Automatic annotation (TrEMBL):
<keyword id="KW-0802">TPR repeat</keyword>
<dbReference type="InterPro" id="IPR011990">
    <property type="entry name" value="TPR-like_helical_dom_sf"/>
</dbReference>
<dbReference type="InterPro" id="IPR051630">
    <property type="entry name" value="Corepressor-Demethylase"/>
</dbReference>
<comment type="similarity">
    <text>Belongs to the UTX family.</text>
</comment>
<dbReference type="GO" id="GO:0000978">
    <property type="term" value="F:RNA polymerase II cis-regulatory region sequence-specific DNA binding"/>
</dbReference>
<dbReference type="InterPro" id="IPR019734">
    <property type="entry name" value="TPR_rpt"/>
</dbReference>
<feature type="repeat" description="TPR">
    <location>
        <begin position="89"/>
        <end position="122"/>
    </location>
</feature>
<dbReference type="GO" id="GO:0010468">
    <property type="term" value="P:regulation of gene expression"/>
</dbReference>
<dbReference type="GO" id="GO:0071558">
    <property type="term" value="F:histone H3K27me2/H3K27me3 demethylase activity"/>
</dbReference>
<dbReference type="GO" id="GO:0044666">
    <property type="term" value="C:MLL3/4 complex"/>
</dbReference>
<dbReference type="GO" id="GO:0031490">
    <property type="term" value="F:chromatin DNA binding"/>
</dbReference>
<keyword id="KW-0539">Nucleus</keyword>
<protein>
    <submittedName>
        <fullName>Histone demethylase UTY-like</fullName>
    </submittedName>
</protein>
């Protein structure tokens, strides 16, 4: 699995382009149009990279948990080591933005919900709230 992640390399310019993308470009940046094929390919590569990274982190967390269970060690050091892998909640938010821009609403909703559950002060992130609102609007999941 580590080999798959190494296959995706992003240049600093591509990372800069990706960092500027969020839910506020929805409706203005049409990634499904023929003019935006390069940017769409970049976003798809970024999604693949982020998803692989999240899968690897989850697998590593489960492996460490299984190792700790087998060893039956209650040392404080082992507990801290098991919590060593930590994914920044903003990763899920960015993943939600990318899926929203690709108009993959169900995956965007999933990523936004994960961010919502992990981030205590989610209401301070305007682009998250806007993206989540757009996804809710798409699914008619809002109340007046």
């Amino acid at each position: 699995m580590a080999q798959d992640t190494d296959d995706i390399n992003l240049t600093p310019q591509e990372l800069q382009t990706l960092s500027e993308l969020d839910s506020r470009q929805f409706g203005f940046l049409k990634l499904n149009s023929p003019e935006q094929t390069k940017k769409k390919a970049l976003v798809v590569r970024a999604i693949k990279y982020l998803e692989r990274m999240l899968v690897q982190a989850q697998a590593e967390k489960q492996r460490r948990k299984a190792d700790n269970t087998k060893a039956c060690l209650d040392d404080k050091e082992n507990e801290d080591e098991a919590k060593g892998i930590s994914i920044d909640p903003k990763t899920y938010c960015k993943l939600g933005h990318f899926h929203l821009l690709l108009e993959d609403y169900s995956k965007a909703m999933s990523a936004y919900q994960k961010f919502y559950s992990l981030k205590g002060d989610y209401w301070k992130d305007a682009s998250f709230l806007y993206g989540l609102g757009l996804v809710y609007f798409h699914f008619n999941a809002f109340q007046w």
